[in-house]
Design goal:
Order of helices and strands: EHEHHHEHEHHEH
Strand content: 5-15%
Structural class: alpha/beta
Bound molecules: adenosine monophosphate
CATH superfamily: P-loop containing nucleotide triphosphate hydrolases
CATH class: Alpha Beta
Number of strands: 5
Number of domains: 1
CATH topology: Rossmann fold
Mean pLDDT: 97
Radius of gyration: 16 Å
CATH architecture: 3-Layer(aba) Sandwich
Low-confidence stretches: none
């Protein structure tokens, strides 16, 4: 079983991913977390990714696809995975289709969280995780990048009936129950 948590920055993907991990006993794969760890450890991938992340831009597709393909070779993903923050472009989505086909863990079910923009900005600026990209300028740029490059990914999945839209506002547990109700 593969689940993609989809939505703009601040939509609650990480929060809901943690709850899904508990419920479905699937591993969590957050490309943002992988990059932040790589930056901290000053690895070659981290060095490549840092300037993009600090600018609120997307890390180049091939860099992202390569780290995901490599990560998914690990046996912990043998039954599938909860993707958080990936795919963020149509190219990444098409690449993931091929990777999942190769692994035979099933098509991904996409949970798209919707939250009004003012609320997204408020959440990101108040989350206090000390992220270098959680500034007012950073979040505004990431939202613009989301609209331009990431929003079209939803159509890629919706056209094939793989996407469910979930209202991402209100109580965290209520949102989680909405998600569980649409997962098969
Ligand atoms: P996140 O933690 O998912 O908000 O990701 C933080 C930042 O890491 C993003 O703003 C991008 O710069 C980069 N990033 C994470 N995932 C991806 C991805 N799938 N494609 C491109 N860049 C990504």
């Amino acid at each position: 079983m593969n689940i993609i948590l989809f939505g703009p920055p601040g939509a609650g993907k990480g929060t809901q991913a943690a709850k899904l991990v508990e419920e479905y006993k699937l591993p969590h794969l957050s490309t943002g977390n992988i990059f932040r760890a790589a930056i901290k450890n000053e690895t070659p991938v981290g060095l490549k990714a840092k300037s993009y992340i600090d600018a609120g831009e997307l890390v180049p597709d091939q860099v992202v696809v390569d780290i995901v393909a490599e990560a998914l070779e690990d046996d912990i993903y043998a039954n599938g995975c909860i993707f958080d923050g990936f795919p963020r472009t149509v190219f990444q989505a098409e690449s993931l289709d091929k990777i999942l086909e190769k692994h035979g863990t099933g098509d991904a079910q996409v949970i798209a969280l919707t939250v009004p923009e003012e609320e997204l900005i408020r959440r990101v600026l108040s989350r206090g995780e000390g992220r270098s990209d959680d500034t007012e300028e950073g979040i505004k740029n990431r939202l613009a990048v989301y609209q331009k490059e990431t929003a079209p990914v939803l159509a890629h999945y919706a056209n094939r009936g793989q996407a469910k839209i979930i209202e991402g506002t209100g109580d965290v547990n209520d949102i989680f129950n909405r998600i569980k109700a649409v997962l098969s």
